[in-house]
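ok so for the tutorial part 2 we go from a plain amino acid sequence to predicted structure tokens. step 1 is just haveing the sequence, like this:
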Amino acid sequence: MGKSVAESIELAGVAALAAGVVGACGALVLLGLRGASVGTQVAAVTLSAVLAVGVGALAAAYAMFISAADLSSLAVIVVAAGWVGVVCAVALGRQVARASRLLGVRARRIGEEGSPDVPPPERPPTRELAQLAEELDATAARLEESRRRERALDAARRELVAWVSHDLRTPLAGIRAITEALEDGIASDPQTVTRYLGTLRRESDRLAALVDDLFELSRIHAGAVELSLEAASLADLVSDAIAAADPVAAAKGVRLGGRLRDAPPALPLSTPEFARVLRNLLDNAIRETPPDGAVCVEAGIEDGRAFVAVADSCGGIPDDDLPRVFDTAFRGRRARTPAAEGGGGLGLAIAHGIVAAHHGDLTVTNTGPGCRFTVHLPLPS
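step 2 — the prediction. this is what the tokens look like for a chain of 381 residues:
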């Protein structure tokens, strides 16, 4: 005969009360395990749930006044099922603890240099923890990439300081020697004094140009380049740059020429800054081209963008050096004392930064008897 609704509610209340008492005890135990491992806490939660179900079932059976034999049988069943639950709880706790240890390994890899080069530890067994592990691995890779960039910047900074120190020392030594000679009266005839004064002016110009380059480079690195854009003719800028560089090329015996291909429309350019780009590229090409060599400047439209290309006869750049050509103070493997008209190895880095500020790109390739520097600029909409 089925039980009435009231009896069913009474049994449910007895079972719920007994299970609630066990659950409350389990909560207190869990509170005491706050410093324990996550595996231990998971095992405690699962064990509390198993005990709550078992105690609730026994309490309900006792309330139904079943026979002692039946109650003993139910107790055996509950204990057996409880042991299975305990084993499952321990296994689950160990699995979660292992997953947390794997996450700990990944977290430690974030602070270790070179960690992306080491194979990652085993994937955690649960989906959520596996996703968290992937995020940690991605964070470690990004951090290592930042470290590599920082090391590269630090190396470039040290190289810049070394080169600039050298380039400052050379003209300063000449200025000091000349001023001492003038002060001591060693140079007294008008011709010698005039020659010394000319040397002082040239060395002062070198120092002023180097300081100007350093200031411009610092603005580029700080992202503080302010461009005053206006419609400008690329052909006119190239023509003016060639005309300005022609006397320097002629003095060295370098042939300098240019040609226009598919004249681009007026481009939004900051004329002084872009003129500096052309000047730096031409100065570099003429400096690196031997006498009787040639430098050719070409401008026009290519692949839907305006371009300016400066090709020289320098003999090419080693393939290993190509990626570093635009690095600050990089002068390649042919380390040398710069000529009087040479800069501090900053011209190409400055040109690269100014072109980037115009939303263009500056690239270099080896071609023919030398290399070719190409500036690409977006056409106006």
